[in-house]
């Protein structure tokens, strides 16, 4: 048999990989390929934190392949050109990949498939990223869903295929390997040392994802419904970057939850498991929306919000304070500093900091989406878009704009002892719990004993909550008046 090329993208795993399985089933040599295609990604080239993860995930995938007598060929450039050169170099007659659902990727993949097919190459693509592909799901009127609950209720009536198990211990190699770049030549690692804390938190790669899923399923899933809301606890799966890069598949997650129900016969086996699967459902819903509404990464789904009266921000001063965790609201600043230091932020805090940006500072959600895109290791176009439009009240099934999180109350409710703030805002660590979420209200002697000097060691609030809330509601009223 002539060689098959398996083009890896957001599926950096060997288990439950339909494209790889198809190549194995076809027989003959297999050439695994990864192409860093900045042109093909359009305006959504991976941000800095995502590139860090990608670098280490590619290293892990290559190591796994080498354990099986293979290797990962790396290229940089336009995917169509690079694939064509590799096809010719190894004499391949088949190219397989798993589908992506971002607008630019869809257009690129269609063009590549047509180009290769014209040259007589057998080209096939597969679903390796979702439980249900966006084009297969419609409501009773034949249109895309725009509300999560009926969407997920419908999805729960559909069968979920079992994950595909890797059936071979060794991959047949081509008689000649194509030229490959060294991983460092992709230039994925940051040029400034802001990623120093990433390695202490993350283990990119399929092995790390499998371990995290196993530990979470065994220890935390039962309590997930409650524990996921508290950022000072280890109550979430933290699988989002692994899902984005395809180091674990949603079918594998589904199977792991189903395995927990083996003895009881009840599925989902607990309320925590049900809520956890619903979070997987939100990821599915995000891709459903992006597929059907491809302009939403830059434009509000609710068109009237294109006229929203956002506030002025002279020289970007307020935006920078938010980005750097210097807003004067400890729970907001803790979230933003966790993001910067680890490339990840607890989901409760994602809602809090997003609400603060779009409603307290009244800065466009697109600023926040851009910052998250560059600083999150799990930056995913579909999920990022859904999350920010939800917070801004301008997307599908969005939180209403008049729902404004009060940062002090959020801190008191979800970080009552202040442990999360103390970890990420250490200059406030010595404040007692009753004052840590509103240090500007603490008596002077309490601040002095804690070594806190407002305006010097920690900033005062950049906006007053009550004033900002009134301004946000007034802006919403103005928008409605012009509708």
Can you describe this structure in just a few lines?
Helices cover 46% and strands 5% of the residues. It is built from 21 helices and five strands.
Describe this structure in words.
This protein has a five-stranded parallel beta sheet, with helices on both faces. Helix 13 (330-342) crosses helix 14 and helix 14 (347-360) packs across helix 16 (381-392). The chain is built from 21 helices and five strands. It is globular. The relative contact order is 0.11. With 483 residues, the chain is mainly alpha-helical.
Residue share in β-strands: 5-15%
Q: What is the terminal-to-terminal distance?
A: 64 Å
The domain tally reads: 3
Strand order of the main beta sheet, please? 3-2-1-4-5
- What best-fitting shape do the alpha-carbon axes yield? globular
List its salient traits.
globular, five-stranded parallel beta sheet, 46% helix, Rossmann fold, 5% strand, single chain, mainly alpha, Serine Threonine Protein Phosphatase 5, Tetratricopeptide repeat, DNA Cyclobutane Dipyrimidine Photolyase, subunit A, domain 3, 483 residues
């Amino acid at each position: 048999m002539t060689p098959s090329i398996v083009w890896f993208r957001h599926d950096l795993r060997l288990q439950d990989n339909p494209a790889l399985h198809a190549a194995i089933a076809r027989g003959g040599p297999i050439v695994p390929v990864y192409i860093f295609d900045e042109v093909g990604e359009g305006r959504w080239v991976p941000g800095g934190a995502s590139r860090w993860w990608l670098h280490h995930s590619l290293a892990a995938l290559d190591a796994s392949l080498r354990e099986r007598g293979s290797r990962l060929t790396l290229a940089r450039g336009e995917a169509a050109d690079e694939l064509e050169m590799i096809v010719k170099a190894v004499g391949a007659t088949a190219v397989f990949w798993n589908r992506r659902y971002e607008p630019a990727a869809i257009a690129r993949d269609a063009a590549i498939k047509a180009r290769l097919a014209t040259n007589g190459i057998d080209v096939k693509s597969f679903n390796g990223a979702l439980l249900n592909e966006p084009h297969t799901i419609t409501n009773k009127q034949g249109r895309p869903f725009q509300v999560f609950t009926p969407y997920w209720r419908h999805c729960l009536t559909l069968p979920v295929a079992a994950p595909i198990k890797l059936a071979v211990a060794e991959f047949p190699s081509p008689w000649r390997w194509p030229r490959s770049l060294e991983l460092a030549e992709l230039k994925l690692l940051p040029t400034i040392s802001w990623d120093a804390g990433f390695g202490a938190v993350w283990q990119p790669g399929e092995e790390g994802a499998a371990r995290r899923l196993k530990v979470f399923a065994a220890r935390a899933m039962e309590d997930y419904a409650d524990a996921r809301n508290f950022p000072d606890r280890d109550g979430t799966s933290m699988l989002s970057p692994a899902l984005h890069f395809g180091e674990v598949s949603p079918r594998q997650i589904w199977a792991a939850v189903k395995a927990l129900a083996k003895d009881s016969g009840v599925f989902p086996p607990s309320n925590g498991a049900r809520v956890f699967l619903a979070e997987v459902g939100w990821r599915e819903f995000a891709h459903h929306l992006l597929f059907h509404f491809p302009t939403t990464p830059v434009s509000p789904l609710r068109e009237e919000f294109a006229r929203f009266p956002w506030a002025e921000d002279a020289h970007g001063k307020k935006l920078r304070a938010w980005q750097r965790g210097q807003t004067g609201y400890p729970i907001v600043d803790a979230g933003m500093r966790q993001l910067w230091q680890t490339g990840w932020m607890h989901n409760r805090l994602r809602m809090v900091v997003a609400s603060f940006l779009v409603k307290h500072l009244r800065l466009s959600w697109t600023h926040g989406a851009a910052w998250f895109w560059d600083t999150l290791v799990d930056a995913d176009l579909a999920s990022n878009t859904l999350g920010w439009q939800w917070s801004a009240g301008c997307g599908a099934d969005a939180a209403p704009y008049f729902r404004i999180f009060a940062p002090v109350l959020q801190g008191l409710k979800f970080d009552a002892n202040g442990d999360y703030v103390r970890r990420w805002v250490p200059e406030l660590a010595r404040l007692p719990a009753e004052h840590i979420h509103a240090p500007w209200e603490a008596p002077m002697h309490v601040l002095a004993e804690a070594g806190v000097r407002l305006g010097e060691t920690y900033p005062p609030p950049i906006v007053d909550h009550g004033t900002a809330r009134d301004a946000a509601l007034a802006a919403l009223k103005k928008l409605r008046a012009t509708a």
